[in-house]
């Protein structure tokens, strides 16, 4: 079958893609920029990448007609530009108009469980998107999920941040709200199970795990699985704004996402009964089992995807492709070089492990201070870490950077700063042959905005002088001591 898949750089889509390939489907994958797609999929014989932004599709698009089914996994809840409700509705309308010209039989949509009496802005937007998608000339199967639990999911990582960091939790009253979490494993089973299943055509289903839990019970349940003693004190006086700040400073979420999450967390999310699990012969696992399954992946460093790697989880609002080519004019640059004779693959290993738990090799305490300053100013700080301790892919989050290009063959890593800055900043590592040796080139580029940007560059000059010089030297030193990758 020919399947159209959107959202392949997002949390669910990145996991769904290999499962569909395992069933021998041919996949047309829609992305805003090909540079964010892993090389394994770019070169896969049963994957075709379609570069398209559904917010502004080109007027003339050579779109494939031989599509049997499609998955719509696009959302914009954490965007920092514009109204995400309008953006989601516009993207859904454009998507519907485009696929209505194909031979599609079924559209599968993943939305959120709705409480009919009270909808948050996020859930209202999801419901409106579903209504828009249902206007097409094809059958729609809508799946509604609540909190998704899995390694790298936003819900799991927020719970993990809170419980691991705080022995005593002073929490807002929304921790008493009831919800019905579901494992990412079960979400994928439902998504695959309804594919071209005519019984599910033009139907909607709430999908969930076994238990109805309060967020407080979820926090304490996580603590129990991790053998941690935790105490929760609920304060009913915390306003939505204070709750948003609480989430923002305690967890790795952005403030914009925290605001929308708090808006949603106040609403009960409980699945309406249906027989889909029985029809597809799926036995959902419990919340505790979902936590344990997530930690199996974490211990094995098998993060298939993380919500932090989605651009919507960051401060990065511009077109991804616009930043791949580092500007040459109107910028300040700090370039440092080190000649070395070590196997370049060993130095690349050191570069590819930078950030996260590994740290920044030199002056880590200063990097942490810079992260705290960014967080106080409303930025993301260093709290995101990285998804995989050794591997990097285009689009990955890396502390307060975004990976624009990770190309081991060309021996180049390019990062774009997502911290709050009066300008735009890039950090590039590149290895080139030099006589009978090699040369590591480390380049920091800053494009200032107005006088504040220029003042910022000169104020940070000592940082460049000492930290960046120490960084490049330590990378080569670590590389010379690191066994080569086999």
What would you say this structure looks like, in words?
It is a single chain. The chain has 486 residues and is an alpha/beta fold. It is built from 15 helices and 19 strands. It has a 7-stranded parallel sheet with strand order 3-2-1-4-5-6-11, sandwiched between helices. A hairpin with a 4-residue loop joins β16 (401-407) and β17 (412-417). α3 packs parallel to α4 and α12 (344-352) packs across α15. 43% of the residues are buried.
Give me the side-by-side strand order of the main sheet.
Answer: 3-2-1-4-5-6-11
Largest sheet: 7 strands, parallel
The tally of strands reads: 19
Oligomer status:
single chain
Average pLDDT, rounded to a whole number, is 83
pLDDT < 50 runs, ≥5 residues: 77-82, 300-309, 311-318
Helical content class? 25-40%
Tally of contiguous helical segments: 15
Structural class: alpha/beta
The value of Rg in angstroms is 23 Å
Please indicate the percent range of residues in DSSP E strands (runs of 2 or more): 15-25%
Q: Shape, please?
A: globular
List the helices and strands and how they pair.
Blueprint: E1 2-6, H1 11-22, E2 26-31, H2 39-42, E3 47-51, E4 69-72, H3 84-99, E5 106-112, H4 121-133, E6 139-145, E7 148-149, H5 154-165, E8 168-172, E9 178-179, E10 182-183, H6 184-193, E11 203-207, E12 213-214, H7 215-225, E13 231-235, H8 240-250, H9 255-265, H10 276-280, H11 287-299, E14 332-340, H12 344-352, H13 364-376, E15 397-398, E16 401-407, E17 412-417, E18 423-434, E19 437-448, H14 450-459, H15 461-481
Parallel strand pairs: 1-2, 1-4, 2-3, 4-5, 5-6, 6-11, 7-10, 8-13
Antiparallel strand pairs: 9-12, 14-19, 15-16, 16-17, 17-18, 18-19
Helix pairs in contact: 1-6, 3-4, 5-7, 7-11, 8-9, 12-15
């Amino acid at each position: 079958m020919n399947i159209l898949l959107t959202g392949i750089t997002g949390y669910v889509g990145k996991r769904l893609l290999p499962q569909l390939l395992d069933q021998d489907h041919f996949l047309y994958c829609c992305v805003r920029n090909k540079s964010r797609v892993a090389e394994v999929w770019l070169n896969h014989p049963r994957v075709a990448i379609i570069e398209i932004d559904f917010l502004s599709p080109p007027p003339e698009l050579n779109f494939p007609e031989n599509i049997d089914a499609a998955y719509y996994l696009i959302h914009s809840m954490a965007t920092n530009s514009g109204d995400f409700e309008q953006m989601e509705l516009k993207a859904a309308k454009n998507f519907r108009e485009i696929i209505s010209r194909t031979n599609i039989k079924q559209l599968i949509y993943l939305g959120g469980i709705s409480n009919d009496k009270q909808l948050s802005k996020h859930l209202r937007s999801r419901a409106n998107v579903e209504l828009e998608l249902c206007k097409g000339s094809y059958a729609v199967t809508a799946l509604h999920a609540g909190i998704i639990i899995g390694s790298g999911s936003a819900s799991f990582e927020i719970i993990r941040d809170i419980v691991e960091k705080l022995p005593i939790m002073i929490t807002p009253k929304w921790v008493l709200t009831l919800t019905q979490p579901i494992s990412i494993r079960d979400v994928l089973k439902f998504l695959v199970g309804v594919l071209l299943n005519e019984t599910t055509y033009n139907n909607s289903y709430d999908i969930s795990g076994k238990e109805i839990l309060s967020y407080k019970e979820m926090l304490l349940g996580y603590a129990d699985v991790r053998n941690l003693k935790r105490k929760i004190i609920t304060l009913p006086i915390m306003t939505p704004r204070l709750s948003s700040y609480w989430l923002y400073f305690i967890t790795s979420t952005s403030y914009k996402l925290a605001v929308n999450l708090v808006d949603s967390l106040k609403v009960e999310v409980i699945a309406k009964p249906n027989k889909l699990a029985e029809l597809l012969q799926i036995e959902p696992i419990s919340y505790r089992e979902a936590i344990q399954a997530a930690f199996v992946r974490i211990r094995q460093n098998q993060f298939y995807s993380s919500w932090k790697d989605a651009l919507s989880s960051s401060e990065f609002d511009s077109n991804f492709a616009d930043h791949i080519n580092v500007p040459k004019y109107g910028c300040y640059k700090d370039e440092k070089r080190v000649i070395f004779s070590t196997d370049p693959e060993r130095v690349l290993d050191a570069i590819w492990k930078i950030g996260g738990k590994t740290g920044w090799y030199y002056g880590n305490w200063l990097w942490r201070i810079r992260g705290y300053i960014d967080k106080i100013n409303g930025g993301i700080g260093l709290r995101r870490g990285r998804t995989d301790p050794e591997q990097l892919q285009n689009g990955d989050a890396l502390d307060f950077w975004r990976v624009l290009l990770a190309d081991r063959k060309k021996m180049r890593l390019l990062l774009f700063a997502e911290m709050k800055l009066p300008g735009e900043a890039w950090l590039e590592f590149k290895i080139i042959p030099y006589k009978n040796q090699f040369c590591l080139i480390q380049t920091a580029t800053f494009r200032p905005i107005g006088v504040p940007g220029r003042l910022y560059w000169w104020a940070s000059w000592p940082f460049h002088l000492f930290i960046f010089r120490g960084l490049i030297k330590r990378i080569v030193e670590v590389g010379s001591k690191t066994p080569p990758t086999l």
